[in-house]
């Protein structure tokens, strides 16, 4: 078991980590995720005692790591570095044999038992066929696997992996993380910094989301990888759904926000309304939806995107409170977007709109009116921006207000 309790560290006069705590039990794969510069590598350095915290404690199997000799640490913790540089002309076998060093006396030579461990480690990460080649002749991904074999040969209860899949093709990436998961099932504790949130979600039991040197969220992937926490940590808009082959969350990063500083209420159901929501959130609009039946694609998408949804149970009919709330949102919005099947129950919600944009599709004729412009989902941001200024939206209102002031 490995833990960090409230570790803080400064480097070169800058605070890099502040009160970071995490626990990795035997059998756990814990993923460190977060944006570039969040402090993942620094956390791993503290966990393997190549850096000492200014405050806080790292413990391995209950013992404070700063009380252990470097040999004792390397008997308990093996790590694969982020850089795949192995600068000397060692063969793959020699590089993996280095993993046995913590188990040997100062001038002791490796025996047949050590050689078996080395052979098994090379086999397990699929580098045995390169055993006699110089490490420098391998590709980046192959070297990365050699480093993992070296860590396995070290036979430690704890494995620390810094970006173990960054240079790997999809097949080797998945196989490497399957191997890490197997090792955990065999009783090891693994902590891995992983950039790919979807691989992290699939293979880690717990995630620790770091940003700005702080833990922003920690727990099972489903609890950590949510649109609000990812927005907070990465300053990015994401859509979180489910991975088809597993029950892990699937994170899709949406295009960079080109902030559409508008509030938009979406009326409609199904995939078309869900698509409209996604498109509008992607460009930074503040979006709500409703009235929509619970479980409808638009309601689900709103939940994934952390947007307000006015929902009613399916087949229950629409109640007055829901209609009032949706009408209130529609009236306050800079624009109302209608998409997909709007339903009679939403008539008064649509009627409350100051400016309407209809998503090109089946629902359009029903709400056709002179105040409506029709746009495809892709054109929605431009259409919303257009109606909200051209037809007297907030910008126009501001312009009117300032010209009134000038007149005074
Ligand atoms: N020796 C140092 N002196 C000053 N700042 C440092 C030093 N080492 C690291 N940093 C800074 O600490 C911050 C955290 O770095 P770290 O490598 O831990 O981030 P990371 O989350 O692993 O990032 P990445 O995903 O880009 O690998 C970065 O802003 C980095 O520039």
UniProtKB/TrEMBL annotation:
<dbReference type="InterPro" id="IPR017871">
    <property type="entry name" value="ABC_transporter-like_CS"/>
</dbReference>
<feature type="compositionally biased region" description="Basic and acidic residues">
    <location>
        <begin position="395"/>
        <end position="408"/>
    </location>
</feature>
<dbReference type="InterPro" id="IPR003593">
    <property type="entry name" value="AAA+_ATPase"/>
</dbReference>
<dbReference type="GO" id="GO:0005524">
    <property type="term" value="F:ATP binding"/>
</dbReference>
<dbReference type="GO" id="GO:0015420">
    <property type="term" value="F:ABC-type vitamin B12 transporter activity"/>
</dbReference>
<comment type="function">
    <text>Required for corrinoid utilization. Probably part of the ABC transporter complex BtuCDF involved in cobalamin (vitamin B12) import. Probably responsible for energy coupling to the transport system.</text>
</comment>
<dbReference type="Pfam" id="PF00005">
    <property type="entry name" value="ABC_tran"/>
</dbReference>
<keyword id="KW-1278">Translocase</keyword>
<protein>
    <recommendedName>
        <fullName>Cobalamin import ATP-binding protein BtuD</fullName>
        <ecNumber>7.6.2.8</ecNumber>
    </recommendedName>
</protein>
<dbReference type="GO" id="GO:0016887">
    <property type="term" value="F:ATP hydrolysis activity"/>
</dbReference>
<feature type="domain" description="ABC transporter">
    <location>
        <begin position="2"/>
        <end position="237"/>
    </location>
</feature>
<dbReference type="InterPro" id="IPR027417">
    <property type="entry name" value="P-loop_NTPase"/>
</dbReference>
<keyword id="KW-0067">ATP-binding</keyword>
<comment type="subunit">
    <text>The complex is composed of two ATP-binding proteins (BtuD), two transmembrane proteins (BtuC) and a solute-binding protein (BtuF).</text>
</comment>
<dbReference type="InterPro" id="IPR003439">
    <property type="entry name" value="ABC_transporter-like_ATP-bd"/>
</dbReference>
<keyword id="KW-0547">Nucleotide-binding</keyword>
<keyword id="KW-0813">Transport</keyword>
<feature type="region of interest" description="Disordered">
    <location>
        <begin position="386"/>
        <end position="408"/>
    </location>
</feature>
């Amino acid at each position: 078991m490995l833990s960090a309790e409230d570790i803080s560290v400064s480097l070169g006069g800058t605070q890099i980590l502040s009160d970071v705590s995490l626990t990795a039990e035997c059998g756990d794969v814990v993923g460190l995720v977060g944006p570039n510069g969040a402090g993942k590598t620094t956390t791993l350095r503290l966990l393997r005692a190549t850096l000492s915290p200014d405050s806080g404690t790292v413990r391995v199997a209950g013992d404070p790591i700063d009380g252990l000799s470097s040999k004792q640490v390397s008997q308990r913790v093996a790590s694969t570095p982020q850089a795949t540089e192995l600068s000397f002309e060692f063969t793959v076998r020699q590089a993996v044999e280095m993993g046995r060093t913590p188990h040997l006396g100062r001038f002791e030579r490796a025996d047949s038992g050590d050689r078996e461990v080395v052979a098994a480690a090379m086999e397990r990460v699929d580098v045995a066929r390169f055993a006699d080649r110089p490490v420098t002749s391998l590709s980046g991904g192959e070297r990365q696997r050699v480093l993992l074999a070296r860590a396995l040969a070290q036979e430690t209860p704890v494995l620390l992996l810094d970006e173990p899949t960054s240079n790997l093709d999809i097949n080797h990436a998945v196989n490497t993380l399957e191997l890490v998961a197997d090792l955990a099932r065999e009783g090891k504790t693994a902590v891995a910094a992983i950039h790919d949130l979807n691989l992290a979600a699939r293979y880690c039991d717990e995630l620790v989301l770091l940003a700005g040197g702080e833990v922003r969220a920690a727990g099972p992937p489903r609890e950590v990888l949510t649109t609000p926490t990812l927005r907070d940590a990465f300053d990015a808009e994401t859509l979180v759904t489910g991975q088809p082959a597993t029950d892990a969350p699937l994170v899709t990063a949406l295009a960079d926000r080109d902030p559409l500083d508008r509030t938009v209420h979406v009326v409609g159901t199904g995939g078309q309304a869900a698509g409209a929501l996604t498109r509008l959130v992607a460009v930074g609009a503040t979006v709500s939806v409703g009235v929509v039946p619970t479980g409808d694609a638009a309601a689900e998408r709103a939940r994934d995107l952390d947007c307000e949804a006015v929902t009613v149970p399916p087949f229950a009919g629409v109640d007055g409170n829901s209609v009032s709330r949706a009408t209130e949102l529609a009236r306050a919005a800079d624009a109302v977007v209608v998409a997909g099947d709007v339903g009679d129950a939403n008539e008064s919600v649509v009627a409350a709109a100051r400016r309407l944009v209809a998503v090109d599709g089946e629902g359009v004729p029903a709400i056709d009116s002179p105040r409506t412009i029709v746009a495809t989902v892709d054109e929605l941001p431009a259409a919303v921006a257009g109606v909200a200024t051209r037809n007297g939206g907030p910008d126009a209102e501001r312009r009117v207000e300032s010209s009134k002031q000038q007149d005074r």
